UniProtKB/TrEMBL annotation:
Residues 131-140 have a biased composition (Basic and acidic residues). The chain crosses the membrane at residues 85-103. It comes from Anaerovibrio slackiae. This is Lipoprotein. Residues 156-183 have a biased composition (Polar residues).
Amino acid sequence: MFNVSGKTARILAAFTAASVACVAAGCSDEDELASLDYEYEDEQMVDDAGNPYTLHRNEDGTETAVYDDGREVTFRRDENNNLNFVSGTAGLLSGLAMGYFLFHGLQPSQPGYYDKNTGRYVARGNMQPLSREERDDKYRPYGAAGRAASRAVSGNNSAAKAQPNNDGVKNGTNAQNNNTSVKSGAKTGFGSAGARSAAS
């Protein structure tokens, strides 16, 4: 006999409910796929500033964004698509909202805003469901591809900072040494003009 796990049963139930709703409303297959708010465990994403984080769905229906640098925020999306702060750093909600909605196949018709008095990200306008193709195209910068690009950029910046020059000295230290030698009147590769300008 085939046994279905609880997680699989929840996914099937969500898919069935979305299918029934879409059939009743006359949705196409693509609309059905995009509007399905599917179950997931962890999704690797980046926020508007390119900071990598992992979005995790909790058992109680809340979601938690855990950043690579240790910051995190737990929130709950309500029936009006507002993101209500539960714990962590509430201010992170504004930076992750657009990618979050696109991940769930929705695009806001107007930009929302973070309300520090209520501790929530307020969604404005209507949420427009995206087709699977539209969702994949718009979500790409926020998903795994965006995360990989963000890591590549930060890796290149680190490599540039630590890359030794011809003397085997790190760039920052060598620049400091050159400034010191110019002040003392030593030649620095600019010929006698360098010594003259230092002496004056």
